[in-house]
Write a structure and sequence with these properties.
Layout lengths: L1 H13 L6 E3 L2 E10 L5 H17 L2 E7 L4 H14 L3 E4 L4 H13 L4 E4 L10 E5 L1 H20 L4 E6 L6 H14 L5 E5 L7 H14 L5 E4 L2 H13 L7 E3 L10 H6 L6 E3 L4 H13 L8 E4 L2 E3 L4 H7 L4
Parallel strand pairs: 2-3, 2-4, 4-5, 5-6, 6-12, 7-8, 7-9, 9-10
Antiparallel strand pairs: 1-2, 11-13
Amino acid sequence: MRAAGILAVCSLLAMSCGGSAHKGGGRQFVVAFSQCNNAEPYRAAQNALMQKRFAAAGDVRLVISDAQQDNSKQIAQVETFIRERPDLLIVAPNERAALTAVMGEAMDAKIPVICLERDILQPYYTTYVHSDNVGIGRMAAEFIKSYLVKKYHQPKGNVVEMRGLLGVEGEISRHNGAQEVFKQYPEIKIVADPVADWLQARAKDRMTEVLRANSVIDVVYGHNDPMAVGAYLAARELGREKEMIFVGVDGLGGPAGGIKKVMDGILAATFVYPLCVNQAVDVALKMLRDPGFHPQKQYVVAPRPVTPENAAQLYQQLTVE
């Protein structure tokens, strides 16, 4: 993935005017992808699948830039893409407010734009491919409620909510979806809601602080799997990991993904947050190849729960996505 980020800077200069090139007598389309942060496992998996799918298409050259979770850097990279005029721009916004205006500039420049997985404040995109983060929050909270009922014979207990980067659609919606359920059960208490910006190491530090301040914790709800795992590692260091369960979101396949963490007993559950790449690439290829194709304004990809009962099966199905 590092190579892809370096390639982005160099490849921009090689784009032909108008964003397309000719290869073997046929047209080769240029697709620019502005990724918010290659360092997150979910983002790295998105990049890898997108590279694989566009390479298989045969008529697309993909250029990836890495914003490194920096709004100003992502804005500058998108501005460079706009000047270079690719045939299609895909953006996974780092933060919704910060990227709104520059994506509007891309639309004004008549560049087709796919907003991938995170939204912006205004619909400045041709189409938006995403999953249902509110639904994921509800599913996670229902799982937690059921666990607490089994533990205490009623819906009560202490929950730590490890939050992602504040202001991002995923963080907002995963929180709001969970709150829709928790507010029905006043004895389920959120005893801490530290912000760890989607990062495992930061979650480990924040959870260490929470553990020192709270003697009773029943559940950690991480807005993504790396944060849930970071919380687990902090609890294990203090010998408290068996006092609570850890619930995440992302459900990536592969040996380092959240599904394997469920199989290994580190996470009690996770929820497959689809990469949305297969759907985005399918739509992108239609947009590039068929001038008469008009995509829907939104495409929603359904999430799925991962528990010890179905983790092994899903692991086989979702080793790529």
